[in-house]
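#struct-pred

JT: dropping the chains for the assembly here, can someone run the whole complex?
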Amino acid sequence: MAEAVLAPVDEFWKVAQAPRRLRNAVISSVFGLVIVLIGMFGIRSSSATLRSAVAAVGVVALFRGLQELGRIRIGPEFALGVWLALFWLVVIVLVAIFADLLPIDSYRKTELVSLRARPRLSFDEPLGRDANGASLLSRSIFAARVSLMVAFLSVSLGLTIGSLLGLVGGYFGKWVDVLVNVYTNSTLAFPPLILLFALVAVFSRGVWTLSIGLAVVSIPTYTRVMRAQTLAVREREFVLAASAMGASRWRIMIKDILPNAFIPVASYSFIVAASVIVAEGSLAFLGLGIPPPRPSWGSMVADGEIKLKTDPHIAFVPAIIMFLTVLSFNRVGDWARKRVLGERNLMG
Amino acid sequence: MRLFGLRLLQLIPVLLIVTLATFLLTEFLPGDPVYDILGPEARPEQIALVRQQLDLDAPLPSRYVSWVSDALQGDLGKSLITGRSVSATLRQRMPVNLEIAVLTQLLALLVAIPLGAWSAYRAGRRFDRAVTTTSFGVVAVPPFLSALILVAIVAYKLRLLPNTGWTPIGQGIGENLRYIALPVVTLALTEIAVYSQLLRSDMAATLQEDYVLAARARGLSNRHVLMREALRPSSFSLITLAGVNLGRLIGGTVIIERIFGLPGLGTAITQAIPAKDYTVLQGGVLLLAVAYLLINLLVDVSYTFLDPRIKRHG
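RK: done, full complex below.
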């Protein structure tokens, strides 16, 4: 109520402050960029911790300046974080697909010289080398291939099967719904990691085994969301109209309900992809992922764990790349879900 | 109570499916427990004898039925490899997981409730934005990474806590807490981030209600309004998720157990997989499934007590 009264006052201040906002935004961006450059190249002699702290301050200032600039130029709903996340995802997907064409070393090629070289921008290996002297850049890129492939396959499988189950259960109700529910509850009750461990032990440790296992684990999420969507769409007028016109139940389900319920369900895929990447990384970290010599982020971190005291970059380079990827999937997923669903929460 | 009974009935098929799936899965596991028991130089007649004793030659359905009927009488059998009673092993391991799961949830809620409530109160301001951004970052760190970072800082650099090992709670609470601190913090980090965001969005909606305005108008303190007036109606999603996570944590700590060398259920079960020790595998999965399902059931039933408006549909 207070907000309603104060709205004109707020509006006045916004207009009055507009030139100052633009100026502040530009100052913040430029200042941030300068600080980042100082942190990266300026202070030569000081410790790595200090340099990264300075660079981090610069990144925050730069981010906030650009965010403000975007809000002024493009609109108040502009979110720089989402754009950066999308950019990162596009880059990592393209790099993973075209890894063979890139001018990088093979992930198997090891060097005796410059063993365990640290990351350095001016150096021919910008991300450094691991304990065997293999390029961390190349290994990270080929590892991205595995993670993204598993994420893509398991999300596609989970989305297809999960939403079909939810659709059928939600639309037909009664015993079909009970059956679907029993299936969902059984999958949820089965400890997911133990299921994955067993699957990996029974079948070979390949991309398909991991994808199918992770799809099985993610099916219940899709089923629940789809069921809730179906129940909501089923009550809408156009469904009533279709059934009054004599459309069959299958036709209504496929032609009317599915298209309207699918987009909200699919908007969960980015978040599921993030959790799939985490799960795949965890398995690989425990030595149960894709077998060597193919690299995976999780197994790279495990390799680096032994050298954590002397060469922390071996573990942290793949860790940071994995973190950025998971963060981007979450950020884009959150944005997609909010765009499609508003603030509503559909789990349950 | 009728709802409770119905839901309890629905658990039976779920448990049957879960145990049957475990049975089938173990059937396909490579290897043979008999070789592990007798060693590589066993003679064929010895192998046949042991197989017969362990009832391994009977067809799968009959073995499943006899396992279920034993389990119903509380007998989960003996480990094929060590010969120890499965229920004794589970009883010994369970406290580790229960303690971790309960402490993690307590720590997470203790930190997340004030964080979430205060960010809801200051929605859109600096504090709220900082918490939201940090949460996004924290959620994106897989537990095995946060464990690694915590070990690197707390155990290696500061030398405050041991990085692996375990002391049961019976042998001194202080020692026990020293070993459990890092695993609990690792697991709680993600939960804090998720819970505070969940509570924030629910509470931001509650704070728009007229009765909150009325409470503020009466001059009640922020703390009273947030914790006494607004918390309970905003905590439904939080309770659901905390319950689901409690159930999941009991079985889902395999990675943390391995990293910190904890003698938990997850380790026991996963060690049984390559050994094809199916009695341990079966018993462990059954226990975890029952725990998960019962906690979920309790959460669902608790709604009706928290909010009498919720109708009880079957």
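JT: nice. DSSP finds 14 helices and no strands in chain B. Chain B touches chain A through 47 residues (CB under 8 Å).
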